[in-house]
Amino acid sequence: MVRCVQLVMGPAGVGKSTYCAALQQHGMVSRQPVHVVNMDPAADALAYEPAADVRELITVDDVSDELALGPNGALVYCMEYVLEDVEWLEEVVTSFVDGDWVVLDMPGQVELYTHFECVRELIRLMERQMEARCCAVFLLDASFLGDASKFFAGALTAMSAMLQLGVPHLNVLSKVDLVKRRLPDRGVEGEEEPWMVVPGEEEREEAFEGALERFLLPDVPALVAELDAKMDARFRALNARVGALLEDYSLVQLVPFSSTDEEAIADAMLQVGMLLQHDEEREVRPQPEWEGTV
Ligand SMILES: Nc1nc2c(ncn2[C@@H]2O[C@H](COP(=O)(O)OP(=O)(O)OP(=O)(O)O)[C@@H](O)[C@H]2O)c(=O)[nH]1
Ligand SMILES: [Mg+2]
């Protein structure tokens, strides 16, 4: 009896909840049940139909009012509360059938994954007490990784979470459709007669692939050189070490994702499935009840 649990994490606004909604939709179409659990006690409206919602147990607003804590303190308090009152999560996770996906839509405070103990302890409890196989899906927003310093900052944050949580880890580059949308619709300045060049769909597609490659197959020495050019010379050795660290451990590998791209959604599912050897847990089951509702 094993449940495969994805913890969807990353900084605020990277698209975690949208990723969960896309997975749920994809699961309906591909007849692979995906149960999304809202684990964000400060969430507003949800873009998906939650199988369970932590706000049934505790909310940031209640904690802020009762304990006069600020939003971050209240959130950490809520997560520690979930850990103490773990029966709630246990009931949720163990209510699902073996082989179904359980997707936890986590809050956007990145310190929860890089500094505090509560998420790590929750994972250990799920593994020990709830027969869960957990992995971290860490989202990084394509629109925020534009230059070398942002790229390294993002990759290092994802790496901190990976080291802190100690579970199989997948870095996902979210909102890649925005990379395409932000491409210039005319020739780039500096090129010959740029105002004459209006790329067609094919050229835009090629430019998109090129822009995406910068993220997906990053040229680390070139990124390090970009950093060196911006920073004081005394940081060169540090930049080189950080670059080597990320490269040596393949920590800059990202899976591209866009919530509107069915192929990207299927691929993300496949990658996470391989990470947790999910297929081994799948059961062949009769037609699901929700057939016909999509
Ligand atoms: N263009 C585009 N926009 C996206 C995509 N995914 C999410 N967004 C938008 O990004 C914004 C934030 O998305 P959410 O899914 O709420 O992000 P989140 O990480 O759950 O945010 P928090 O829970 O507040 O940390 C919303 O306006 C989404 O519509 C995507 O793939 N493409
Ligand atoms: Mg969210």
Automatic annotation (TrEMBL):
Keywords: GTP-binding, Hydrolase, Nucleotide-binding. One of its GO terms (molecular function) is GTP binding. Signal peptide: none annotated. CDD domains: GPN3. Binds to RNA polymerase II (RNAPII). Small GTPase required for proper nuclear import of RNA polymerase II and III (RNAPII and RNAPIII). May act at an RNAP assembly step prior to nuclear import. This is GPN-loop GTPase 3.
